[in-house]
Give the backbone structure.
Amino acid sequence: MAVQKLNIEAFIKLANEHPVIDVRSPDEFEHAHIPGAYSLPLFTNEERKVVGTIYKQESRENAIKKGLEYFGVKMRRMVEEVEKLLTGDGCQMTEGKELRDDRGQGAAGQGVNDGKNTSSKTVLVHCWRGGMRSAGVAWLLDLYGFKVYTLVGGYKVFRQWVLKQFEKEYPFKILGGFTGSGKTMVLAEMKKNGVVVIDLENLAHHKGSAFGGINMPVQPTQEMFENKLAVELGRADDRSGMTDDGKSDERNHSNSASPLSSVNIQSSTFKTSSTAPIWLEDESQRIGNVNIPMPLWRQIRTQPVVFLNIPFEERLKYILEDYGKGDRGKLVDAVNRIKKRLGGLETKTAINFLMEDNLTESFRVLLQYYDKQYLKGLQSRENVKDLVTELTSEKVDAAANAEKILNTTKELNA
């Protein structure tokens, strides 16, 4: 079997079916990689530096010879690791690093190969720019009997593909609502019902507010966040090809008692398209330490919003359940991070309540602050009155509110 080279589109399509093996150094992989890829470095971080220095200061030939010194002793081990990856029997250690996927899991273990076809002995291999590292490993695996595909242009071309995804137009619909409305859980329920959803907070490992990093995994780098988001956009765009009836609706859904009346949202037009929507949660551009890419962010801000309006006290109860058991020190640190915007007096009041273990009153102060911030962000949209449809609910109930949103959107499309 000969090694076959693929362009980026074909590579990504096959990546949904077969394991992707990233042979770049551990540091390169750790910084960012193709989502779902496994790290099988040809060189350690130090070895890569040595080979690179020889390439620059001496010659290509000397660099190859040095690389072969490192590669030769690893050949058997690398073949065995890929073999065990495909069989799910576990894996050996490579230069002190376990073959692992982007969740930090070893090749062994339940769920690692979910959705991947490992019975065909097919693997996809790439390095930084489709050069000697991927060619060397691909040659070895092909020689052993694996079916091997490599990526023309390597990870560098993948990054170019990633950035292009943020320039495309998508049929987004946005789920909005004040903090504590349970929007993330509502979207999860909608997803169970076959709705196309991208969970930005899950991709970012952050819930968005100053408190959003508490009890969450370490955030990805900006580059890795973009990689994950681009792949999700590609998958969602494929799924959103499912069509609805394509009808639009011009009915008025005003609510004079609504908190939105303070920003002059009296009515809205919920426009539909000929494709199924991709639902996102209404987020700030910055989610913790990562940012939604600007071209995509600009598009999101022009898309229809369903505003889930839930009473303050109900949302306060939900927040208490969500954050009430959190570490007090981390909660105090989070309050201090918004001190400049919250104001000195309110900051002191919120922290004092925390120290007195009066979480209800502390979170009441904070929730009032976040409600004001959310309204400010909502109002900053252009044509806000034409974008927002309000939906009132009395409870923070993910299943019930998801059903209400789905029924409402169906009615609007009828």
